[in-house]
Amino acid sequence: MAATETLTAERILEATEEVLRRYGPAKATVVDVARVLGVSHGSVYRHFRTKAALREAVTERWLERTIVALVPYVEAEGPADERLTGWLTALFALKRKKAGGDPELMATFQVLIGENSAVVDRHEEHLVEQIARILEDGHREGLFAAPERDVKATARAVFDATDRFHNPAHAADWSAPDAEDAFTAVVSLVQRALKA
After folding, report:
1. Exposure winner among 4, 82, 91, 190, fewest CB in 10 A?
2. 95-104 burial, b for 16+ CB within 10 Å, e for fewer?
3. Which ranges in the chain are annotated with CATH 1.10.10.60?
4. Does domain 9-47 have CATH number 1.10.10.60?
5. pLDDT score of 3
6. pLDDT tens digits, residue range 88-102?
7. Can you give the pTM of this predicted structure?
């Protein structure tokens, strides 16, 4: 790192991702991150008090990208049923891209996700809230029936029903020849249930 560049939390997280990709979660150290940045490991610790805090922050950053990528489906104009299908399709595509595009990094983040269950829980809550907003719009538009329970419970049910297509535990199945057909069938079933 050039002497004139300011060390920020964002730069540290970028370097941490690079180190995790290169060495994997078992071998990556804060010293490795500091070396990539050209600073002492103490400088990294000034931003992140522990290695665990750094790993948690990089996991949160990684998951946040998914939330941000899905916002357009939540805030878009147009029928809620189409937006919901678009949201679910985009989530599946994002997860498949991460799993297939950079399998080493995906494997690393599966380890980090296992270490940071509270981060994953918050991430899932954000995703469920996004679905709930779409469902609320659909109810107002008359496209979706009034939920039998509260909207958030229905949104959670939608999230859980599509688990096979966004939970990294199923990543090996995402490249199967019938994955797209299976996804379409589940989304169609969800849409029919919401409109019933």
Report:
1. 4
2. bbebbeeeee
3. 9-47
4. yes
5. 44
6. 999 999 999 887 776
7. 0.85
